[in-house]
Amino acid sequence: MHRRNKWLDSLIMLVLIVAACAMLLPYGWMVLSSLKSNMEIVSGSHSLLPQRASLEGYRTVLLDAPFGRWLLNSAVTSIVITAATLFTSALAGYIFAKHEFKGQKLLFVLILATMMIPFQVIMIPTYLITAKLGLVNQLMAIVLPNLVSSYGVFLAKQFIEDIPQDLLDAARMDGAGELRLMVRIIAPLILPMLSALGIFTFMNSWNNYLWPLIILNDESKMTVPLALVYFNGTHMVNYNVVMSAAVLITLPVIAVFLIFQKQFIKGLTMTGMK
Question: What keywords are annotated for this sequence in UniProt (predicted)?
Answer without folding.
Answer: Cell membrane, Membrane, Transmembrane, Transmembrane helix, Transport
